[in-house]
Queue: 3 jobs
Job 1
Amino acid sequence: MIRRVLAITGAALMEALRARLSPLIALVLVAAVPMTALVLGEDADTRAWLVRSVTAEGLRVLLPLGAILGGGFLLKPNLKRGWTILPARRAEYFTGGALAGALVLMLSSALFAGGGLIGNLAFGSDLTVTSQGVEINKQRERDGVTVYAEGKGEGYTWANPNYNEELLAELPAQPGNDLSGTIEFRMVWTAEGAPRDRAPVAVALIDADGRHELESRVLSRYRLHFHGRVNGPAQLVITPTDPVLIIGTTPDRIRVEVDRTGATGSILRLWVLCVAAALLCLSAVLLVRALATAPTAVLAGLLLLSVLTMLPNLGPTSGMARDRRAAVEGVRPDITLAQRLEDELAAIPRLHPETAFDEYLGARVVPGNAWGDAGLRLLAALAMLPIGALLFRARQIAR
Amino acid sequence: MPDVEITNLSKTFRDFFGRRRVQALDGLSLSLRGGEVFGLLGPNGSGKSTTFKIAVGLLRPSSGQVTINGHKPGSLAARRATGFLPEDSTLLPFLNAAETLRLHGALAGLDRATAAKKADELLERVDLKHAGKRRVKGFSKGMQRRLGIASVLIADPDVFILDEPTSGLDPLGAVLVKDLIADLRKQGKAILISSHLLGELENVCDRVAFLNKGKLLREGTLDELLREHDVHELRLSPPDPEAIKALAALAAEKGLKIMSSRAPMRTLEQFYIKILGKDES
């Protein structure tokens, strides 16, 4: 069976590589990033940013879309293409076709990522290496006395501005006197008023010189950059400033810049992450295709893509607000079916871990947990293949 | 001995809501033994292709059954025993002819060297030796058909199911295929073949069945079905006019009616083969 699957894979791969437009497409894929940066970028900084941006967005957005469209039209369950002379080996045809599709997808995305690497070598700049916070605890001022409480370890530790709470992050040892880094946080709206601040946190440092404010700059809705001077071992103090927004973060969301390095490893990590996500989409589309038409399979793939990219953003805050109230009041409120559904949907893992892309776009090294994330997505993709093959085998071929 | 048994076979195609849409087959029963060529005849939509697709496991019957050498269609044993040529040539366009045959050899379980050797032999047998390195995309329909037949032959199955095997072939190509079928019959293979061109099957089939709207109308050997029992044909060579007159007189004396007496006509196909055969040789 394996030999037959490999034979079908090899033939399908040869078909794809020998198609008339293949050389042109390969050239376009390699040239896309450097050419875009060269044509649209006016100075070195813009070109470096364009190289990062086009590479990251191409891999994040276009690759899964390509996998969905390609997967939809990859298999021909009717009697029009090459496999019907051995008609009953449909499961093998499905598996061989899927493997060939996966290899084409990997090859084309590798060419695109290779173009990103070339662009980075030509126009890009080094990325910042970061280290994460060691642990997070919190403190509260009460009747002039500072009370400390332990954080939640690797999980989110929350600070409520109504109780004058602040988060204290232990920072790793710094090689010099300059400190800069990023904080990524989540917000829970207490529904007691309208939020008013764009960045509802202030950042300060406690070191050998005492407590002093750091300069901060908003990067996105949930991220800000900080920098300042440091003297010896230090703690970062994160203070919620909007009275209706509870702020929470985890140690790995506090990153301190320690060095600079080339982008090769980061692009490789992004590529692996995105290929795994695209293969997940491809497998899901093929699974639907095993029983349905190509347009139906493509629509199902697009639906999956939107669920895995948009729904996790929809309603996490109301769930966190309920959790917070339950923790404070000690009573778990009854939740409606709609709220439960919202919680379930919000708990779906995203197709891409956004942090990896944010880091790369922000000229920082992509964190190493990319490998584990990619591995999980690959396993999910692999798990769907045998199911699709069995369904495809059971399908009747009328035309 | 290879055999195909079709017993009380029915197939109804239904729509999404389970409503009956088309009754493609209705209680069809046939049997076929090794060394026999069985032709299925009928107009478009009579159920020939549906019968074939059930026989190779692409469709499931609504009722009744098909067995190939005693095995259910789609089972490993039935798959190994069956070679199927569908109505449309279904080849990968960017592989060349030799690669196509080697692929089918690999899928049939042949090792690389054997597949390559058999591919060469078959290319010669279907008269495509000169086009072995050409991509299938550039083949004419007839060449694709011949390559499709070679792809079926490489697995050396016991039972051949050929759906319109001569479709798209020129008369010389059709003769080549008919010769191949005759060879297979000599080797003891069972061959189920369909066509809506009646003349195509007349020369190659031992038995034929006529289908219409999924029902079996008639079935039998060509001799049983085609012989006209109340007429006798006599051919003379050389056509001596005196002898013909004498025979006509004798027939009249015996009270027999001479229905026709003339020089026989060749068919267009025979003439085409004669002149092109000479030209190509």
Note: The CA atoms of residues 60 and 274 of chain A lie 6 Å apart.
Job 2
Amino acid sequence: MKKMKLSTIYLFIVFVILYAPIFYLMFFSFNSGGKMYHFEQFTLDWYRELFHDTRLLIIVLNTVIIALLSSVISTILGVFGAIAIWYVRKNYQKSLLLSFNNVLIVSPDVIIGASFLIMFTVVGIKLGFTSVLLSHIAFSVPIVVIMVLPKLQEMSSSLIDAAQDLGAGRREILTKVILPYITPGIFAGFFMALTYSLDDFAVTFFVTGNGFSTLSVEIYSLARRGISLNINALSTLLFLFTIILVIGYYFIVTKRNGRAVGLGARK
Amino acid sequence: MSNQAIIRFEKVTKQYDEDPPVLNDVSFEMERGRFYTLLGPSGCGKTTILRLIAGLIEPTSGKIYIDGKLVNDVPANKRQVNTVFQDYALFPHLNVFENVAFGLRIKKLKKEEIKQKVREALRFVNLEGYENREIKEMSGGQRQRVAIARAIVNEPEVLLLDEPLSALDLKLRTEMQYELRELQQRLGITFVFVTHDQEEALAMSDEIFVLNNGVIQQRGTPTDIYDEPINRFVANFIGESNILKGRMIQDYLVEFAGKQFTCVDGGFNPNETVEIVIRPEDLEITPPEKGKIQVKVDSQLFRGVHYEICCYDQQGTEWIIHTTKKVNVGDDIGLYFEPEAIHVMRIGETEEEFDARLEAYHEQGVANEG
């Protein structure tokens, strides 16, 4: 019993340490004093200012468009990539492909950003919307692959045999058996790609050009110029948005998992 | 047309890479409307035969005919056969109705027709009213039936069953054996049933193919195979046996366990070394002086329906007896058996040679009597 309590206290402390700075920041976004200490009065001025800043609103829009486009495209690419890896028969080829995929996930964003910058300059792609979109797609694809692949591996190969046995051709096997089966993985991959794209800073910072910016880059440059509680307001909104995404993702996953659990009981 | 074999294998070999072949130069024919069982231990090649018929794998060499047509290059989705898989392979994202309708939807049948056929198939397997159930809500036995309905709704000429009963408990398994047998008779199509369970094979089949190491060891009706196994492997695999070394003195006279006995086998060379099979249930316990062989009881196991008694004779040969009588360990008892209970096997004989010899001495026997 005592052990239980200790672990609960430990957990509580960890969460406090993790969340305290965020709540501190959110708290002062309502401060009329304009400083991060000494709370004077409750105000929504910073938020009002935020919503009158058309430049900032365009940046928000850019960020969302980039995130949605890149995650949709990378989900499509990633799903087919995962299926391709899954189809590879030889084990060493499979693990080689998978390693190539995983290296991209673990390698530092700075390196990926810098190398993309070099590539875009060499190829002659103007830095801006296209370059940011392309690089976001590039770092999202491996994430989708790694989210979808376990679902494929969990699928019994006799399902494919059965579909073939019942007259299904290659295309029907894909659309009527494989894709419906891995749908939870596809959703998970999509949401992962979306969040990665939304909060990416390092890669975007390298490949973005004049006149184009995303939220995280903008917050960074605002913070460099000097502290304004604008940033707090913006960060608060961003945080809330992320929370909503996470909750939405959770609901989709648990709903789907209800099915998956039933599957597990099959044997 | 109806006499023509529905499935024909001509010298079919299947080999993966450099490994020894899973299936080695196998030829056979299967007739329409019969219940065939492929029986053998795991890795004997029985599932390989099934997958070759289904078209899920291609033979390394040899020819496969279905309904008289060469199908080596016909992919699985174009063959008029359907399979019930070992793990049922039901689609978890579809309900019962959609699972059964899967093949019909691919054939793009009309909605009404699909509805009617699915309902009919579900009625055939006693699952009326389960159309809207999810697969995860069904029990093992029910899933089995859904899998069967999904296969037969396509009206295949051949239904392939890959150890479909192995995941069920004993009671349900026995029930399903009756149902499958009955289903086959009602449908009138060819069933090819794969199993490693010899009791299942004996109970259900018109004809059994016993396989080992990628070769068909023996084929025949259940009684043929049980009463006249061709070699040690078949005798051991199908039922329990006492297998003894022996010597054929002349036709109908064999020597084993240090004595000579009359038997009903012939067609051997004089003094040929042979193997003798006597089934444990053909041995009758008598007082020592009345038995053909005298043995000492070594151990006794209660098996429910019968006792399994293990004895040794003076030469130290082990004898297994199945009997409902109880004896005491350490007793001296006699064993009595009819000449018909002795089955003599020639060592290393192939199926063709076995059949030819059987035919020859049966004719001779008839001539002698006349």
Note: Chain A touches chain B at residues 156, 158-159, 161-169, 172, 176-177, 180-181, 183, 259, 262-263, 265-267 (CB under 8 Å).
Job 3
Amino acid sequence: MPDGLTKWDPSGLLHILSLAGPADAALILHHLKDDLSAAAHALDHALTLGDTEAMRHPIHALVALCGTAGAACLHQKACDLRDQIGAGLDTEARALALSLQTGAARLAERLATELGR
Amino acid sequence: MGNRPVRHPPVLIIEDTISLRLVYRAIAMAAGHPVAVAGSAAEGLAQFHATAPNIVLLDVVLPDGDGLALMRAMLAERPETLVIVLTAHGSVNRAIEAMRAGAQDFLVKPVDEARLTAALANAANAPQRTLPAPAGPQANLFIGSSEPMQRIHGKIESVAKSMATVFITGESGTGKELAALGIHAASPRANGPFIALNCGAIPQDLLESEVFGHMKGSFTGALSDKPGAAQAADGGTLFLDEICEMALPLQTKLLRFLQTSTIVPVGATKPRKVNVRIVCATNRDPMDAVRRGQFREDLFYRLFVVPIHMPPLRDRGDDVIEIAETALARFAQEEGRHFDGLSPEVRALFRRLPWPGNVRQLLNVIRNIAVLHMGGLVTPGMLPESLFLQGIDGPTPTATDMPLHDIPTGLPPNLLARPLAEIERLVIEAVLTRHGGSVPKAARTLEVSPSTLYRKLEGWGVKT
């Protein structure tokens, strides 16, 4: 399954990490990974329950987190899902939510492996 | 580049997502600002008190409250604070809502380094707001140290701590919404949302949906589920302005809501529990509305638990001078002008005028002066002519109190010799003046919709 990370451009994030300095950069990466994982997990849980209200907060977080990490595709998916769930959780919205949740979890892994060195 | 010194005032960042909070902190510190951080509305308010930042970077969605309500509370304490609102939702409506609530700037997440740095620089170099320093949270909501207002401050302080419903009465423009905001800001619910709804400005057939929300498809135009004001105010305060304008069927539903704390959105089958503190207001006499059968008596007694009556400006002694001079300084700065205050003649005149539109009318007059004149001492010749259409040396009764033929209209005697468009404009402006500038009230008198009047006023270039 495509993980939505083909357009991942971490250059903006790398610049922010350089502004932060080594100690704070490590802290930012650590928490970015954790926040992405937590939001992906919360989205997965809410999706399982079919609870669109509970989906709002993790989607809101993923809009910002995926964008900050430079994952343009995932950011767009999060924006699209935020706009769609207002109308309910139909098949298309479910597929989008699942794709976003999977992509966010993959992004968290790649942040740890590729930038966390 | 000029020689103006670069300013790096202290910044408070209120953002619940840890990694984002660290990113914004890194950017602000790289730009030279001292930074404090908070991860919730409660922590944010505590840090606001502790660090007194010049700039606040504020996430709209917080785990323990609404960011815009927190912003209103902070601005009520220190109006000179510059708040930059952050949201992941890029809707124009949200931006307008934030700016109207007093935000300095509005950023959509994800925020890149360049955009955030620019927003901080703009805020750091924004003109200083010169409002008087507050003596305390309540004092800053209202300008004016008269005895009637001291009593109002005391009452707000006492009622804020309880859950009791507050019923605020007073003429148009006396600060009823400001009082409601003061009650909310001083209450244990200050970190929760403050939702204001004007029951007189919303078409009655849409008001139920505005208050209680609706489900997708429940009526034509209901394209998605929409939470109402009661749900949006969950955990906070719901302010229902012009409550006496609410139609009787909706009053019945409001009464049920007050009795059960549950709402049933239009088209829904399941009730939902909400935790809301109600503050309501009217510029009518509520008992008179009950007597006329326009307001349910049982609802009235349910709402009229703690009454607060906002005094009219003419009963507030020298507050009119204090407010006028504060507003003159503020508006002059916005227009890039300098005034030397009010002349003794203008002061004497202001003390004698009845001000049927109260503080709102006074602010309009001062704004008119600041816009149309370059500066100097404010003399009677600088005052707008419409100010002299009202009587002096006594209160002007409202149109509902007097027979029509006894009310001075301020209309020129040769009305019938004028073009129809001019007659229409003169009549509309005279009715508006009679109602203290209130468009909904003028619309009711003229039996047209408020939107018709707003369109005409906009076409004439009149700001409302």
Note: Chain B touches chain A at residues 17-20, 22-23, 25-27, 30, 61, 88-90, 109-113, 216, 223-225 (CB under 8 Å).
